[in-house]
Amino acid sequence: MSLSRWSDNTEKSMEEIISNMLNYEEWNISVTDPLTDEDLRYNITKAFENNKVIELNGAEINYNIINYEYERVRTGEESNEMRSSRIHSIAGYIIVYSDNVRTQYITNKPNNDTTKTVLRKINNYTSQGEIKSNPFQITEDFFIWMISKVLNSTNESIDESSHLVIKKIVGFKGSSHDQLAEVIGSGNRIMNALSTLAFLFENEEVTYVKPVIEYKSHTIELFLKLSGSIDINFENYLGDYFMDPPEELTAKVVLMVALESIPNIIDSYGNDIANENWSINQKIELIKGIGESIQAKVNEKVSRLSNTGDF
Fold this sequence. Notes:
Blueprint lengths: L3 E5 L5 H9 L1 H4 L14 E5 L5 E5 L2 E15 L9 H4 E12 L4 E5 L5 H11 L7 E3 L6 H12 L12 E10 L4 E7 L4 H13 L4 E10 L2 E8 L4 E3 L13 H29 L5 H29 L3
Antiparallel strand pairs: 1-6, 1-7, 2-4, 3-4, 4-5, 5-6, 8-9, 8-10, 10-11, 11-12
Helix pairs in contact: 6-8
């Protein structure tokens, strides 16, 4: 699953947007099954009767969850007598949230044109520019910077104000999502060095990374993707929201990650670049240091074998 972030550019209030979604019977044009003439399913509901409030970045954020499900006829399958092949069901959820100035969405779909089409359909939007993708700015260099933070970790925050520690980072490559490397702050130095080299030498193949972070009183396993989408392993979440009802936990963790945790990491990365604490020279020193550590271990092993003859 992926979580992607989107902006609503209509200048409607959050209440107007949600009200319009829920009043779909007033604007939705029913689609019928070409073989049975039955109306295809179209349903939109909200998780909470009244909008919830959470404080993030020193501001009150109003939020709700919109659950949707609708059916459409598969192109080219209109005459297929098997309904499961003829009719395709599309379902998901949208976290709608606002700081009382702008309204944005986070949905459990990837950052692509198909997701934009779904959001436009749920809102009954027909004009261009009403929904705009708002991806996280994630790059390969950002991944390497995160690894450097893990390697140099002393269980301290990535900067003085973030209250955030990156405990571990795992890299994955290709469409098959093969694990490429795992770097642990408190792990074996040589294993970390070898994993980091594997990551650096094959970084063009990396598609996403999985960092485990400690943020304030929360421990969260994230997935950060070059597409600008993210994901969260809710099963491994530990923190203040652990005992909340499932939908409320989901909304709170997603909003905290999207509005505080990840922006804090990206901001720290940007500050390191601006303050020249991260540059091509730092990357060179990182690689040289890793190489020297491995070479020293190799020399030590060779010396031991030469002196003792042990395998």
